[in-house]
Design a protein that fits this description.
Blueprint (H helix, E strand, L loop, with lengths): L2 H12 L26 E4 L5 E3 H4 L4 E6 L6 H13 L1 H6 L4 E6 L3 H10 L6 E5 L4 H6 L2 E3 L1 H4 L2 E3 L2 E6 L2 E7 L11 H7 L1
Parallel strand pairs: 3-4, 4-5
Antiparallel strand pairs: 1-2, 1-5, 3-8, 6-7, 8-9
Amino acid sequence: MSLTCLRLRAVCRAVGYSKHFTRTGTANMSVKVGDGLPNAELFENTPDNKIQVQEAFKSGTHIIFGVPGAFTPGCSKTHLPGYVNGFDKLKGKGIETVNCVSVNDPFVMEAWGKAQNADGKVRMLADTCGTFTKGLGLDLDVTAVLGNVRCKGFSMVVKDGKVENLFVEPDGTGLTCTLSENVMDKL
Protein backbone atom coordinates (compact mmCIF):
# COMPACT_ATOMS: atom_id res chain seq x y z
CA MET A 1 0.00 0.00 0.00
CA SER A 2 1.34 3.42 -0.91
CA LEU A 3 2.43 5.96 1.67
CA THR A 4 -0.19 8.36 0.29
CA CYS A 5 -2.94 5.83 0.88
CA LEU A 6 -1.72 5.20 4.41
CA ARG A 7 -1.69 8.94 5.10
CA LEU A 8 -5.21 9.34 3.71
CA ARG A 9 -6.46 6.54 5.94
CA ALA A 10 -4.73 8.01 9.01
CA VAL A 11 -6.20 11.46 8.42
CA CYS A 12 -9.66 10.00 7.90
CA ARG A 13 -9.44 8.09 11.18
CA ALA A 14 -8.15 11.19 12.97
CA VAL A 15 -11.12 13.28 11.88
CA GLY A 16 -13.56 10.53 12.84
CA TYR A 17 -14.57 9.63 9.32
CA SER A 18 -15.45 5.98 9.87
CA LYS A 19 -15.99 4.97 6.26
CA HIS A 20 -13.11 6.84 4.75
CA PHE A 21 -13.42 5.46 1.25
CA THR A 22 -17.00 4.86 0.23
CA ARG A 23 -18.95 4.84 -2.98
CA THR A 24 -21.37 7.74 -3.09
CA GLY A 25 -24.01 6.40 -5.46
CA THR A 26 -25.52 3.14 -4.34
CA ALA A 27 -27.80 3.05 -7.38
CA ASN A 28 -24.80 2.94 -9.75
CA MET A 29 -23.10 -0.33 -10.37
CA SER A 30 -19.43 -0.36 -11.26
CA VAL A 31 -18.62 -0.52 -14.93
CA LYS A 32 -17.61 -3.92 -16.26
CA VAL A 33 -15.92 -5.35 -19.32
CA GLY A 34 -18.22 -5.08 -22.34
CA ASP A 35 -20.02 -1.95 -21.12
CA GLY A 36 -20.17 1.27 -23.09
CA LEU A 37 -18.91 4.53 -21.67
CA PRO A 38 -21.30 6.94 -19.92
CA ASN A 39 -22.75 9.95 -21.67
CA ALA A 40 -20.59 12.64 -20.07
CA GLU A 41 -18.38 15.58 -20.90
CA LEU A 42 -14.77 16.00 -19.86
CA PHE A 43 -12.66 19.11 -20.29
CA GLU A 44 -9.16 19.43 -21.71
CA ASN A 45 -7.07 22.46 -20.64
CA THR A 46 -9.95 24.98 -20.48
CA PRO A 47 -13.69 24.97 -19.77
CA ASP A 48 -14.23 25.82 -23.45
CA ASN A 49 -12.62 22.60 -24.69
CA LYS A 50 -15.33 20.02 -24.03
CA ILE A 51 -14.75 16.38 -24.86
CA GLN A 52 -17.92 14.33 -25.35
CA VAL A 53 -16.84 10.92 -24.03
CA GLN A 54 -18.96 8.63 -26.20
CA GLU A 55 -17.97 10.52 -29.35
CA ALA A 56 -14.25 10.78 -28.49
CA PHE A 57 -13.81 7.07 -27.81
CA LYS A 58 -16.34 5.55 -30.23
CA SER A 59 -13.69 4.12 -32.53
CA GLY A 60 -10.15 2.89 -32.10
CA THR A 61 -8.33 1.64 -29.02
CA HIS A 62 -7.71 3.97 -26.10
CA ILE A 63 -6.53 3.86 -22.51
CA ILE A 64 -8.39 5.87 -19.91
CA PHE A 65 -7.02 5.91 -16.41
CA GLY A 66 -8.41 7.72 -13.42
CA VAL A 67 -6.69 9.03 -10.32
CA PRO A 68 -8.04 10.35 -7.01
CA GLY A 69 -6.21 13.65 -7.35
CA ALA A 70 -3.91 15.70 -9.53
CA PHE A 71 -0.60 16.54 -7.86
CA THR A 72 -1.09 13.91 -5.14
CA PRO A 73 2.20 12.15 -4.32
CA GLY A 74 1.50 8.63 -5.63
CA CYS A 75 -0.24 9.90 -8.74
CA SER A 76 2.60 12.34 -9.47
CA LYS A 77 5.52 10.05 -8.65
CA THR A 78 4.27 6.78 -10.10
CA HIS A 79 0.88 6.64 -11.81
CA LEU A 80 1.02 9.44 -14.41
CA PRO A 81 4.79 9.18 -15.08
CA GLY A 82 4.39 5.49 -15.93
CA TYR A 83 1.97 6.33 -18.72
CA VAL A 84 4.04 9.28 -19.94
CA ASN A 85 7.25 7.20 -20.02
CA GLY A 86 5.49 4.16 -21.51
CA PHE A 87 3.64 6.12 -24.20
CA ASP A 88 5.73 4.92 -27.15
CA LYS A 89 5.37 1.27 -26.11
CA LEU A 90 1.61 1.70 -25.73
CA LYS A 91 1.39 3.32 -29.19
CA GLY A 92 3.41 0.39 -30.53
CA LYS A 93 0.74 -1.96 -29.16
CA GLY A 94 -2.02 -0.16 -31.05
CA ILE A 95 -3.19 2.36 -28.47
CA GLU A 96 -4.35 5.57 -30.18
CA THR A 97 -4.69 7.82 -27.14
CA VAL A 98 -3.81 7.68 -23.45
CA ASN A 99 -6.10 9.74 -21.24
CA CYS A 100 -5.83 10.70 -17.57
CA VAL A 101 -9.07 11.62 -15.78
CA SER A 102 -9.44 13.23 -12.38
CA VAL A 103 -12.22 15.07 -10.59
CA ASN A 104 -10.50 18.44 -10.81
CA ASP A 105 -10.85 21.59 -12.86
CA PRO A 106 -9.30 21.76 -16.33
CA PHE A 107 -6.70 24.35 -15.30
CA VAL A 108 -5.33 22.08 -12.58
CA MET A 109 -5.22 19.14 -14.97
CA GLU A 110 -3.42 21.23 -17.60
CA ALA A 111 -0.85 22.45 -15.05
CA TRP A 112 -0.30 18.92 -13.76
CA GLY A 113 0.21 17.64 -17.31
CA LYS A 114 2.78 20.36 -18.02
CA ALA A 115 4.61 19.60 -14.75
CA GLN A 116 4.76 15.92 -15.75
CA ASN A 117 5.76 16.51 -19.41
CA ALA A 118 2.56 14.81 -20.56
CA ASP A 119 1.95 17.12 -23.54
CA GLY A 120 1.57 15.10 -26.73
CA LYS A 121 1.49 11.83 -24.79
CA VAL A 122 -1.24 11.77 -22.16
CA ARG A 123 -4.38 13.85 -22.50
CA MET A 124 -5.25 15.46 -19.17
CA LEU A 125 -9.03 15.41 -18.83
CA ALA A 126 -10.99 17.11 -16.06
CA ASP A 127 -14.18 15.51 -14.78
CA THR A 128 -15.24 18.77 -13.17
CA CYS A 129 -18.45 17.54 -11.49
CA GLY A 130 -17.60 13.84 -11.35
CA THR A 131 -20.27 12.97 -13.92
CA PHE A 132 -18.04 10.57 -15.85
CA THR A 133 -16.70 8.99 -12.67
CA LYS A 134 -20.18 8.52 -11.20
CA GLY A 135 -21.44 7.19 -14.52
CA LEU A 136 -18.78 4.49 -14.31
CA GLY A 137 -19.71 3.77 -10.69
CA LEU A 138 -16.10 4.47 -9.68
CA ASP A 139 -16.73 7.46 -7.44
CA LEU A 140 -14.92 7.62 -4.13
CA ASP A 141 -15.98 9.80 -1.22
CA VAL A 142 -12.81 11.26 0.27
CA THR A 143 -14.44 14.53 1.27
CA ALA A 144 -12.81 14.49 4.70
CA VAL A 145 -9.35 14.34 3.13
CA LEU A 146 -9.48 15.84 -0.37
CA GLY A 147 -12.57 18.05 -0.02
CA ASN A 148 -15.00 16.28 -2.35
CA VAL A 149 -15.95 13.08 -4.11
CA ARG A 150 -13.15 11.88 -6.39
CA CYS A 151 -12.61 8.80 -8.53
CA LYS A 152 -11.11 5.50 -7.59
CA GLY A 153 -7.80 4.65 -9.17
CA PHE A 154 -8.65 2.76 -12.35
CA SER A 155 -7.35 1.96 -15.81
CA MET A 156 -9.31 0.69 -18.75
CA VAL A 157 -8.72 -0.20 -22.34
CA VAL A 158 -11.59 1.04 -24.49
CA LYS A 159 -12.04 -0.39 -27.96
CA ASP A 160 -14.67 1.06 -30.28
CA GLY A 161 -16.53 2.62 -27.35
CA LYS A 162 -16.66 -0.51 -25.19
CA VAL A 163 -14.60 -1.40 -22.13
CA GLU A 164 -12.27 -4.22 -23.21
CA ASN A 165 -10.07 -4.45 -20.08
CA LEU A 166 -10.70 -2.94 -16.67
CA PHE A 167 -8.48 -2.59 -13.62
CA VAL A 168 -9.72 -0.95 -10.40
CA GLU A 169 -7.58 -0.47 -7.31
CA PRO A 170 -8.99 -2.68 -4.53
CA ASP A 171 -8.77 0.12 -1.94
CA GLY A 172 -9.62 2.84 -4.45
CA THR A 173 -6.34 4.71 -4.05
CA GLY A 174 -3.45 2.27 -4.28
CA LEU A 175 -0.88 1.81 -7.00
CA THR A 176 -1.03 -1.82 -8.01
CA CYS A 177 -3.15 -3.11 -10.88
CA THR A 178 -3.77 0.25 -12.60
CA LEU A 179 -0.15 1.09 -13.41
CA SER A 180 0.88 1.32 -17.06
CA GLU A 181 3.07 -1.80 -16.86
CA ASN A 182 0.11 -3.91 -15.79
CA VAL A 183 -2.10 -2.57 -18.56
CA MET A 184 0.69 -3.03 -21.12
CA ASP A 185 1.06 -6.69 -20.12
CA LYS A 186 -2.63 -7.26 -20.97
CA LEU A 187 -2.48 -5.74 -24.46
